[in-house]
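Milestone M4 deliverable, item 7.
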Amino acid sequence: MKLAIVLCLVAAVAAAPQRGGNYYSDYRTIQLQRYDNDNIGVGPYSFSYEQSDGHKHQEQGELRNEGREDESLAVKGSYQWVGPDGVTYTVTYIADENGFQPEIEQGPGGAVPGAVVASLLG
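Output delivered:
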C-alpha cells in the first residue's frame, strides 16, 4: 500500500507541467535592490524601489487644498520593466483631479501593443 502511494506521488510529480524557460519562470529569484519610503501617513509622501529583474517604480504625492472642500491628492511618478521581448517599457504618469494621465515609452526595438495603450488610457 505504501509503495502504491509513493508511486502515485512520483507519477503526479512527473506528470506536473514543468516550468519552461519563459520570461516569468524566475519570479522567485527576483531581489529587491533598493527601497526608499518617506511617508508618515499625513502630508506629502514619496517612495521608490528597484528590483533585480529591471522593474523600477517611483512616486511622489501631495495633498492639494488641504482642509478645503476641493481638497485632493495629486500624484506623479513612473514605473519601468523589461518585457519578455527584452525591451524596456516606461510609464510616466500624473494622477490628480483630472484623472490618471499616463505617457508610455518603450526602448529600442519595442512597440507598445494597442491593447495595452487602450487599457491604460481607459
